[in-house]
Design goal:
By secondary structure, the chain is mainly alpha-helical. It has one domain: lithium bound rotor ring of v- atpase (Four Helix Bundle (Hemerythrin (Met), subunit A)). It contains 5 helices and no strands. Helix 1 packs antiparallel against helix 2, helix 2 packs antiparallel against helix 4 and helix 4 packs antiparallel against helix 5. It is elongated and about 60 Å long.
Length: 162
């Protein structure tokens, strides 16, 4: 029975890593997809705007990268990368809890950032000289993903120090 409890800590830590990756990745794929559809429509009419619309499409991709970063930090701290460690059930649950901020924030912020990116793409079609202003709007949504990433990273390092 004690072997099952010892492995359950690792299970919940891995569940947290998967949660961070999947949730933020799902949000990024939806956001990037929305912006990609808008970008493709623009490029059919104005191929010279490729570089500008590509920047807008890439913005929602960062949340997926943040989720992946949190997963790698969890892997490293539980010993799946580097030195193997015994992870208690409590630590495993804490790692899972540490994945929640970037998982949920990554999901929702990437979707909404994709919506803002679509609006930015529509803006530069009509007024290409407004690129700087148009890119600030979806970039503001990124702030909340970065804050969630920071909380997840701080939590992981706090757990590792226990």
């Amino acid at each position: 029975m004690s072997e099952i409890l010892n492995n359950s800590g690792l299970f919940f830590a891995l569940l947290g890593a998967a949660f961070a990756t999947f949730m933020a990745g799902i949000g990024s794929s939806i956001g990037v997809g929305k912006a990609g559809v808008a970008a493709a429509g623009v490029l059919a009419e104005e191929p010279s705007l490729f570089g500008k619309v590509l920047i807008f499409q890439l913005l929602p991709a960062t949340q997926g990268i943040y989720g992946l970063l949190v997963a790698f930090l969890i892997f490293s701290n539980v010993g799946l990368i580097g030195t193997p460690k015994d992870i208690t059930l409590q630590q495993g649950l804490l790692y899972f809890a540490a994945s929640l901020p970037i998982g949920f924030s990554g999901l929702f912020s990437a979707i909404h950032q994709g919506n803002c990116a679509v609006a930015g793409i529509n803006t530069i079609v009509k007024k290409p000289d407004q690129m700087g202003k148009a890119i600030i709007l979806p970039a503001m949504v990124e702030t909340y993903a970065i804050l969630a990433l920071l909380i997840s990273i701080l939590a992981i390092f706090a757990i590792a120090g226990m």
